[in-house]
Design goal:
105 residues; mainly alpha; 0% strand; 51% helix
Length: 105
């Protein structure tokens, strides 16, 4: 294993601190389409667009959270960003994750 001789301790220390940095955002398109829904067939129209469910499920997957914690984290992010949207309930996430087709890029 290679051993590095660190000469710039100030830079190295700042780099170590930055490793713990967390940057989260929702892009503007997702926020605008958060509640845009269309009625698919019979029954009650969906409250949250697929993009909203996909954003929340991405948070769930990245941080390996259960559904209730995903709801809480999404609510916290929305509050911190001062957005005028609501996070989907964990039961909605559970139902919609089975139906959602995730586009792979």
């Amino acid at each position: 294993m290679a051993k590095y001789n660190i000469r710039n301790w100030s830079y190295y220390n700042k780099a170590l601190v930055k490793r713990g940095s967390l940057t989260l955002w929702f892009d503007e398109k997702s926020v605008k389409e958060w509640h845009k829904t269309r009625k698919d067939g019979r029954g009650r129209p969906k409250i949250y667009a697929d993009v909203a469910i996909l954003c929340m499920l991405t948070i769930k997957m990245v941080f390996r959270l259960p559904l209730r914690a995903t709801q809480g984290m999404a609510e916290s992010i929305i509050d911190l960003l001062k957005l005028s949207i609501e996070a989907a309930n964990y039961t909605t996430l559970c139902r919609r994750q089975r139906q959602l087709k995730v586009p792979l890029q």
